[in-house]
Design brief:
The complex is a heterotrimer. By secondary structure, chain A is an all-alpha fold. Chain A has one domain: MetI-like fold, CATH 1.10.3720.10. Chain A has 14 helices and 2 strands; from the N terminus they run ααββαααααααααααα. In chain A, a hairpin with a 5-residue loop joins strand 1 (68-70) and strand 2. In chain A, helix 3 (82-89) packs across helix 14 and helix 4 (91-107) crosses helix 9 (183-208). The longest helix of chain A has 29 residues, at 37-65. Chain B is of the alpha/beta class. Chain B has 2 domains: 39-151 and 311-361, 3-Layer(aba) Sandwich (D-Maltodextrin-Binding Protein, domain 2), CATH 3.40.190; 154-310 and 387-428, Periplasmic binding protein-like II (D-Maltodextrin-Binding Protein, domain 2). Helix content of chain B is 47%, strand content 13%. Chain B contains 20 helices and 13 strands. In chain B, a hairpin with a 2-residue loop joins strand 4 and strand 5. The termini of chain B are far apart. By secondary structure, chain C is mostly helical. Helix content of chain C is 74%, strand content 0%. Chain C is globular, with a radius of gyration of 24 Å. The two termini of chain C are 33 Å apart. The chains are: A mainly alpha, B alpha/beta, C mainly alpha. Chains in contact: A-B, A-C, B-C. At the A-C interface, helix 1, helix 2, helix 5, helix 6 and helix 7 of A face helix 2, helix 5, helix 6, helix 7 and helix 11 of C.
């Protein structure tokens, strides 16, 4: 890292030499810099080495670990497919997959909600946009741990604000976070709350990219705001919607903080809220079964790849690139 | 453009400063390694309420051994064992730490904590000074793996205000299960959101106190098979679930998960709770609790039996400590008469070092702490095997169904026995 | 600005909807603030207490007494700065190489980078932990940030950014005899500042909030960031709501301040990653 900071640039004669050997692409339409070779290597080195050491190699190592069993205080031995056999039979894994899917599904609720918010903020002559934007964005920048503790209190069955408000309209609210039937919804609502701001910003910039004459033309045709939203904004926003959807699903796959902090291992609702990453942490670091945790990690990897691939295939059906 | 430039300048200065900050921050904590003269030990505990007593012990120790610094690390119970095992495995863990009977054998067998016999012999530490049951619980294969720290007694914490308001006689040593139920029924007031009793699903603070009272057992004395399928054990557990599902005098499992049962007691939401000898300090920390909570002897079983499972802590030394000699010095001090005195006087725990129970009992005049001391004579060895956590956590998870009334206690308990026997069979491999 | 907009209040329904939404978004913060100054009794009273009768500042001192909170805030700051500087710098260098240089194996290498962005980071966790252990870095600040200094996603983002910069200036500089490093540092980097800020802001948020890695790698409270500190505050004060809310408030305030200051850059950063990602 220290070497990169120096601003003084060495004299160029040296640098031209290796570049000359490598510049075999002179004929390409947009010839990038010619004197590349060595410099490219130098520029790429930190990122490449970092990724190799901390991400690429660990990926293969995790795959290897998934075929091993671990001792309580260190050491591991090859155990073949045993972890995967346990994995298939493990009811916790099954729960985790279902829970993760439910969280993803509910989290997607944030997509239309934030699209509406962005559309409202983009109305011509709308005032107070900056203030609204700031307020809606606040949850995105708030420490998830703090968010979790605050919502946990709000959701408290006896002393939480939410149940008190519900009682005002005659509803006897449940113990949201410790009731197996409601906990996952409570967590997902917090997820939605936390992601509206992020999505909104992306949609805002997407809407800004839509030419105003579309709306003007629609107005001449007598289309109302709502009709404009569905017939112009939504179709032309599909690339952003697609992006946000992908991000939402991938983030939901990684859900951990809220389950760890709002539910926890001793809650009766844990089997109905534990996610794959939570299970990964629990098995790998709380119960010190690294081999099994690695197998869960591989499962997570496969799930991510499959879902991403599926989304990109579906994309062709409905995303409208203008 | 202007702001961009400004930010760029700021970023640039960050860029230059960051490595310095990082370097400075890192060098701060790695400086204590090399020299043999001055050593810093780390000592891990999980109870914030006891941190003050521990710090006082350290201070006095440091006065006698100026070359040895000790840092206390408080990690809450929920993550204590996760972190401890991870860090001990990695060789970065604390040099000394609190151990419970639940994990002792696991750490001893796995090579996480060191046998102390050689040091005990060399420095002629008198092990007979400690409550024998505790020493025994930390002895495996004839080797001692921990210096006993404290013992736990239990009592019935009750809200004097609520008892008086209901015109009920305060609990005394004549009470048995039936008295608890009868009083709880009278004290429960759904209108005010007040419950007569609280029945959390927390083994050590719930059925570990009642199962022995009816002659049940959690694990066979030789630690090879589960006792959860015995009728007596089931009866001891049912005492708790009945409070919720039959008599409706206790908050539900959902409620006790949402809000700490001790907080319910100290805010006047429940009138009675079974309490441990380490808890009065926490109760006194809340003004309402200090003013209105009384402590009575733990109600006996239907036949007057008062046996209970008692967990006592010990201080253990990491098998991977880099300073075994200094660590032993401190461990010895932790096990000393003086350290016991300090702890007793704060009223946080009953020391395992015998002869300090009176000091503990007098530590907080607002409470009758003698109750806990008197309870000690009924202590039974805490249920444990090599990998206690494996079946204990599973049991806690499964019993939720009985607490919520989803399944009869007997069914759940037999199911738990099955899981537990499988886990025990796995241990033998 | 159009005068008509000033003259009359437009879109009342939109404002109504947005206001209701805003209450939902901000309400929890106000509740947190109010509770952080209440007594425990007030926090569990029914009906709830909205305004504390006498502000309990002692909740704050309880938080700072239970945790080395100041130290943890500093840890988080160091972790965030190091990760951000590392990711932005290394990603800019590599992104530039991918966008503007021709070299053998570029396609393959870029494909590898791209595929790394698909791997969920939990997959790296166990081996990263072991690397830290082998380097003797467990329970140090360095462990908190070292693996987080490199990012395939950041490289990808910077590549997209460099690709959209005009070629002309670069070519003119080349004709003037500037070498590649000069072009990079004196011409491209300044032009790429918005992109770097965008990435930087994303990394700041992600770093500041990270919980899983610190939970795994550091067990000493003095070496933890504030996110893990809050988790252990909950362990100690299970349901002492005023203390927990005071801790949450203190922990989230710094980033909210940073957000308010850098709001525009942050928003444009996110918008950019959304369009080009």
């Amino acid at each position: 890292m220290s070497g990169q900071g120096t601003a003084t640039v060495p004299a160029d004669p040296l640098t031209d030499k290796p570049a000359g050997q490598r510049a075999r692409t002179a004929g390409r339409p947009r010839p990038p810099t010619r004197d590349s070779g060595w410099w490219a290597a130098v520029l790429l080195l930190p990122a490449a080495v970092g990724l190799l050491v901390f991400e690429i190699w660990p990926t293969f190592q995790t795959i290897y670990y998934s075929f091993t069993s671990w001792g309580a205080f260190g050491g591991h031995a090859w155990s073949g497919l045993e972890n995967y056999r346990t994995l298939i039979a493990d009811s916790d894994v099954f729960h985790a997959i279902v829970n993760t899917a439910i969280i993803s599904a509910i989290s997607l609720l944030a997509v239309p909600l934030s699209a509406v918010v962005a559309a409202l903020l983009s109305l011509p002559g709308m005032r107070g946009v900056t203030i609204y934007r700031t307020l809606y964005f606040l949850p995105v920048v708030t420490l998830p741990a703090a968010v979790a503790l605050t919502w946990k209190y709000l959701f408290n069955g006896d002393y939480g604000l939410i149940n008190w408000l519900l009682s005002k309209v005659g509803i006897d609210g449940p113990h949201w976070l410790s009731d197996p039937a409601t906990a996952i919804f409570a967590i997902s609502i917090v997820g939605v709350w936390g992601s509206i701001g992020y999505n909104m910003v992306i949609f805002l910039s997407g809407i800004r990219g839509i030419p105003t004459d579309y709306y003007e033309a629609a107005e001449l045709d007598g289309a109302g705001r709502v009709a404009q939203f569905f017939h112009i904004t939504v179709p032309l926003l599909t690339p952003s919607i697609f992006f946000v959807t992908v991000i939402t699903v991938i983030n939901s796959l990684q859900a951990f903080d809220l389950v760890y902090l709002m539910v926890g291992q001793t809650s009766p609702a844990i089997t109905r809220t534990e996610t794959l990453v939570y299970l990964f942490y629990q098995r790998g670091f709380a119960e010190h079964d690294g081999g099994y945790a690695a197998a869960i990690g591989v499962l997570l990897l496969l799930a991510t790849l499959i879902l991403t691939a599926a989304q990109f295939r579906l994309q062709r059906r409905w995303v409208h690139y203008g | 453009m202007n702001t961009v430039r400004r930010i760029r300048r700021r970023l640039l200065s960050l860029l230059l400063v960051a490595p310095l900050v990082a370097a400075a921050a890192c060098s701060g904590n790695s400086g204590s390694g090399g020299d043999d003269e001055h050593v810093t030990l780390t000592y891990a505990i999980w109870d914030q309420a006891q941190a003050a007593a521990m710090k006082q012990i350290i201070q006095e120790f440091h006065g006698k051994h100026p070359n040895i610094d000790v840092q206390v690390q408080v990690t809450p119970w929920e993550s204590y064992w996760t972190k401890l095992q991870t860090s001990v495995t990695a060789g970065t863990g604390p040099d000394l730490f609190w151990m419970t009977m639940v994990y002792a054998k696991y750490y001893a067998a796995g090579g996480g904590i060191a046998p102390l016999d050689d040091q005990i012999k060399k420095s002629k530490l008198d092990m007979s000074a400690y409550v024998p049951a505790v020493t025994k619980a930390y002895t495996f294969g004839g080797k001692v793996y921990g210096v006993p720290k404290d013992v736990n007694g239990f009592g019935l914490c009750y809200n004097k205000l609520l008892f008086d308001a209901a015109k009920l006689k305060h609990p005394d040593d004549s009470w048995t299960w039936n008295d608890v139920v009868a009083a709880a029924q009278k004290l429960t007031d759904p209108q005010k959101g007040v419950y007569g009793f609280v029945a959390p699903e927390a083994d050590e603070l719930s059925w570990y106190l009642t199962v022995p009272q009816v002659g049940g057992q959690v694990i066979s004395p030789d630690s090879t098979s589960s006792g959860y399928d015995q009728d007596a054990t089931i009866k001891g557990i049912q005492f708790w679930t009945d409070m919720i599902t039959k008599y409706h005098v206790s908050p539900t499992l959902q409620q006790t998960t949402d809000t700490d049962p001790l907080a319910m007691l100290t805010s006047g939401k429940v009138a009675m709770r079974y309490c441990g000898s380490w808890e009065p300090e926490e109760i006194a920390a809340v003004p309402y609790g200090k003013a209105n909570i009384g402590i009575a002897p733990l109600p006996a079983g239907p036949d007057g039996n008062r046996n209970y499972y008692s967990n006592g802590l010990a201080n253990s030394m990491s098998a991977k400590t880099k300073h075994p000699d200094q660590a032993w010095e401190f461990l010895q001090f932790l096990g000393s008469d003086r350290a016991a005195e300090i702890q007793a006087k704060t009223g946080t725990v009953i020391p395992a070092y015998q002869g300090h129970a009176d000091a503990y009992a007098k530590a907080m005049p607002e409470f009758d702490l003698q109750v806990f001391v008197d309870h000690l004579k009924y202590a039974q060895p805490f249920p444990a095997s090599t990998d206690t956590a494996a079946w204990r956590d599973a049991a806690t998870k499964q019993f939720a169904d009985a607490w919520t009334g989803k399944a009869p206690v007997a069914d759940v308990s037999r199911r738990v026995a099955e899981t537990m026997n499988q886990a025990l069979a796995k241990e033998k491999k | 600005m159009a005068e008509s907009a000033k003259r009359r209040f437009r879109h009342p329904i939109a404002h109504l909807v947005l206001c209701i939404g805003a209450i939902f978004m901000v309400g929890p913060f106000l509740w947190q603030l109010s509770t952080s100054l209440q007594t425990f009794g007030e926090s569990v009273s029914v009906p709830p207490t909205f305004v504390p009768t006498s502000p309990q500042w002692s909740n704050l001192s309880t938080v700072f007494g239970a945790l080395p909170f100041g130290r943890e805030l500093l840890n988080t700051t160091v972790m965030t700065i190091a990760r951000t500087v590392g990711q932005v710098l290394f990603s800019a260098l590599a992104g530039f190489a991918f966008a503007r240089m021709q070299f053998r194996g570029r396609g393959v290498l870029f494909a590898i980078f791209l595929s790394v962005t698909m791997v969920p980071y939990q997959v790296f966790l166990l081996p990263q932990y072991q690397i830290m252990q082998k380097l003797g870095l467990l329970n140090t600040l360095v462990a908190l940030f070292l693996p987080g200094m490199f990012s395939a996603f950041g490289t990808f983002l910077m590549r997209q950014f460099f690709r959209q910069l005009p070629m002309e200036i670069e070519e003119a500089a080349r004709i003037d005899g500037a070498n590649i490093f000069q072009i990079f540092s004196r011409i491209m980097l300044p032009m790429a500042a918005p992109g770097m800020i965008a990435l930087g802001v994303l990394v700041v948020i992600w770093s500041w909030n990270d919980l899983l890695w610190p939970l795994v790698v550091n067990s000493d409270p003095r070496q933890m960031p504030v996110s893990a500190g809050l988790a252990s505050l909950q362990g100690q004060y299970t349901t002492n709501f005023p203390v927990l809310m005071a801790g949450s408030l203190v922990a989230s305030l710094p980033v909210i301040v940073v957000f308010v200051v850098f709001q525009r850059q942050l928003m444009s950063g996110i918008a950019f990653s959304g369009v080009k990602g």
